[in-house]
């Protein structure tokens, strides 16, 4: 019998429980070796424990070092800090991996296959913010301070180059805004140039300013292979590359650290369609595929991919992809095409 691997399951908010249930069903069908410890977080955490980030969840991830996370709702404005950002900090999940590959032909672009790495702990997402009062207005000026450390720049850029080597990728593009944010993103570029020297002859390196990169991703995405960038730029560009392959319902992500890794869909909790049975589970399913690769079970990740490809080839489409299938129909179709 295969050894079971303890893993934390966070069903999440909004469409989270619907897509998590679908993914756990599909993983069961391929006998994925996870032993789930289900934990509430976000709004579900507030409902169950009065805390969006309950202690029991943190303890669970501390024990398992491995989690599959449904999307969490972050209330806008004051009150709670983003649970996603706090989890990344708590477990020092420094690398955010976001692959984008065309799964359905006939969209805007064929054969997209690129991978973006986003620095996950620093930059403007350190969110050190405050207001500066002027005369009678206590909020006259809003100030946000970002920081990047040389050590963290080096760690994420090295991670991207190592990924390129291991996955037979040819080029890493360093994306920055060092012409304006000369220190904050200049340091990232400087480290990028240093790290690249160690990979000379094995992986090509080039550089792009973030605004030009955004335009080129739309004009000619095929010039990119692996992209590595700072936190805020990575957040924006990863949603953009999700748009190249059919939208957020198709884009998985992984938050990786030395001691823990949390896998998730790039999309949010989609409150507009929650409870309707329409949600597309493919992004979270592909995130579970990254999780299988992370534990060394590429064979099972490939089986999942066969199921997804088969379901799409048979014409099944959820509403976000212009079809009419619900979560259950696409889940059944994927299970049908697994082997
Ligand atoms: P969203 O990604 O939830 O939704 C954007 C649009 O995409 C909506 O129309 C939604 O219906 C659609 N959509 C998203 N995922 C889909 C899926 N799997 N199947 C079909 N359609 C899908 O973005 P939002 O509305 O800006 O955010 C909603 C909430 O999610 C917010 O509270 C936000 O903070 C949170 N959020 C969480 C995460 C996360 O947990 N990783 C990421 C992004 C946003």
UniProtKB/TrEMBL annotation:
Keywords: Oxidoreductase. The keyword Cell inner membrane does not apply. One of its GO terms (biological process) is tricarboxylic acid cycle. SUPFAM superfamilies: Isocitrate/Isopropylmalate dehydrogenase-like. GO terms for molecular function: isocitrate dehydrogenase (NAD+) activity; magnesium ion binding; NAD binding. Pfam families: Iso_dh. This is Isocitrate dehydrogenase. It comes from the Bacteria. Belongs to the isocitrate and isopropylmalate dehydrogenases family.
């Amino acid at each position: 019998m295969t050894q079971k691997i303890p893993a934390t399951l966070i069903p999440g908010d909004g469409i989270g429980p619907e897509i998590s249930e679908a993914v756990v069903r599909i993983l069961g069908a391929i006998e994925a070796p996870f032993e789930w410890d289900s934990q509430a977080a976000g709004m579900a955490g507030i409902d169950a424990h009065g805390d969006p980030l309950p202690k029991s969840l943190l303890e669970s991830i501390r024990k398992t070092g491995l989690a599959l996370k449904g999307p969490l709702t972050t209330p806008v404005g004051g009150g709670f800090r983003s649970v996603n950002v706090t989890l990344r900090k708590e477990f020092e999940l420094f690398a955010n991996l976001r692959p984008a590959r065309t799964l359905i032909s006939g969209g805007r672009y064929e054969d997209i296959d690129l991978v973006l790495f986003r620095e996950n702990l620093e930059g403007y997402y350190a969110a050190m913010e405050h207001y500066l009062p002027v005369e009678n207005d206590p909020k006259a000026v809003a100030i946000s301070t970002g920081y990047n450390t040389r050590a963290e720049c080096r760690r994420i850029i090295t991670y991207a180059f190592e990924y390129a080597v291991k996955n037979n990728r040819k080029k890493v593009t360093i994306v920055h805004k060092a012409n304006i944010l000369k220190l904050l993103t200049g340091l990232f570029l400087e480290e990028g140039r240093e790290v690249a020297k160690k990979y000379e002859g094995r992986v090509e390196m080039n550089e792009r300013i973030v605004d030009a990169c955004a335009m080129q991703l739309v004009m000619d995405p095929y010039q990119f292979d692996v992209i590595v960038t700072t936190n805020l730029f990575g957040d924006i560009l990863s949603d953009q590359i999700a748009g190249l392959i059919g939208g957020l319902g198709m884009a998985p992500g992984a938050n990786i650290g030395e001691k823990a890794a949390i896998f998730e869909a790039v999309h949010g909790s989609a409150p507009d369609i929650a409870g309707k049975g329409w949600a597309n589970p493919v992004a979270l399913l592909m995130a579970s595929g990254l999780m299988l690769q992370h534990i060394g079970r590429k064979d099972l990740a490939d089986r999942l991919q066969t199921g997804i490809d088969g379901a799409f080839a048979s014409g099944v489409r959820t509403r976000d992809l212009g079809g009419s299938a619900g979560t259950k129909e696409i889940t059944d179709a994927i299970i049908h095409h697994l082997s």
